[in-house]
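Example record for the data management plan.
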Amino acid sequence: MLPLTGNAGRVDLRRVWLLAWQKARERLPLTPLEAMLADVLRLHPEYQAMLEHPDALARDWTPEGGESNPFLHMGLHVALREGIAADRPPGLRKLYDQLRGSQDLHAADHLLMECLAETLWEAERAGLPPDESAFLARARRATG
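Corresponding structural encoding:
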């Protein structure tokens, strides 16, 4: 299995999702990473059929076409989970725990993922690393 970081290309990264979902459907043993990917996919039945078709590996989803990229969406779920587990930025886990008490976990994820996506977009546009303090401030504002 390929890592989700490093020099892996888009098709290779997407193949990791495809293989994790295939193993989960076949009830084969999963690595911790595969288990996390399969868990994210269980939250999104609308993406499951797509992963059963190899053409998903090369397909483009464009905002101009009114589409959202399912791999980007699922990747944001993973990034958020990893951030919460590491409490990075500091305070994210506490904020998430508070949010969990007031709403559905998937909805809480999506709320924070919007903040993360905006932070990543700003960083990309500026050619800088993501600003963790800006992300946390944005998340605090979004969660009240």
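Summary line stored alongside the record: The chain has two domains: 1-59, 62-144.
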